[in-house]
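User: Could you write out the 3D structure of this protein bound to histidyl-adenosine monophosphate? I've included everything you need below.
Assistant: Certainly. Input first, then the structure.
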Amino acid sequence: MVKAVRGMRDILPEQARRWDLVERAITEVIRGHAYEAIRLPLLEFTELFARGVGETTDIVEKEMYTLADRDGDSLSLRPEGTASSVRMLQEHGYLYNQTQRVFYAGPMFRYEKPQKGRYRQFYQIGAEAYGLSGPDIDAELIGLGWACWQALGIESMVRLEINTLGSGDARQQYRSALVSYLSPLVDQLDEDSRRRLHTNPMRILDSKNPETQRLLENAPKLPDFVDAQSIEHFNGLKDLLRGLGIPFQENPNLVRGLDYYTHTVFEWITDDLGAQGAICAGGRYDGLVERLGGRATPGVGFAIGLDRAVLLHEVAQERAAEGAADVYVCVPDQQFLEAAMQTAQALRSGLPHQRIRLHMGGGNLKKQLKKADATGAQVAVWVDQQSADEDVLTLKHLRDAVLGQESLSFDAGVERLRQGFVAQG
Ligand code: HAM
């Protein structure tokens, strides 16, 4: 039997129902903002992405599905839609002296390492606006994303991070300063960062390596290089977002993996899908039309990762069906049912403002933790033979991989939970 190619998604009937629903909800919101649908080809000349997305980005360097056409032309399956949408609108005369608001949906292809939420064929719904340079359109697009999350009932599961990269010049100056700072430290950088130092140094800010992050503590900071006009634009955006009641966090390390961005960049992130947290990302790309051979035209947009939006919708619905809790007390071993009930009771007195749910219905710990996750609980707690022997309580922080799992005395455990909930407000 020939199997599916790794990372290419099969979407079976029962999943396809949810896909339809999510896709329809999002496109309705986008149409409601008066964006016009366009349909982009799957194949483009490789050069479009090399010039558009950037020769030294991971996408172009190592993730494209590139093939030679029969006449020798190098073609690539589209890894994203922004470069194609610029190409298409420019080629047909839709950009000169006009404004456009468009959207597209469909599969994109990147040769990435597949895992939950990350596939080699994945789906995006993207929206792009051209010919508008103010922060108002940035805010409209962010507001559009927010309206999509509300339509899907996932707005409490996502947070917005924003940053400004400044003008092209500011970015260039920052890039040089970063390279000068990091060059003498090159031996201490992780392998990926060393490679990026001369190709795409700003991506080093994204490194997950703790040693590299430590070196970056004293590095020049992007906000110090951003020009006054960009700051004004960014302040304008923040005011509008406040006015719209959309919560956001500034993240000066948010640089994005595609080269075309200038000024505003943003990501919608969830902690509910494990490692693949970005469900939507975008920003302003005022230089791209020119870079691809057109007249200077401002552009801004985003793309929602539909695979991730669907996964998140599923989690939200499971959670709603399950009923919400803050702390979930597991009973992995019925022998400790009484201890678990006492623990739940004591937690209720110790944490009067939190919802403490005791697991019922048996099953192994893995299954119970899955249920705990579905209630949206921050923490699962249990007593088993080992913790009973050691007279401790085992705590698993379900939303914080760094804190992970720990064993504490009962009183220390309650205090730990109390502090955690206080910190969260
Ligand atoms: P991007 O950050 O590369 O941006 O992708 C946007 C979203 O697509 C991500 O936040 C994620 O949800 C989803 N995505 C990306 N790669 C994968 C994958 N391998 N598997 C599943 N989902 C994935 C862009 O593509 C830009 N064109 C966005 C944009 C539009 N900027 C301006 N306009």
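DSSP finds 15 helices and 16 strands in the chain.
User: Perfect, thank you.
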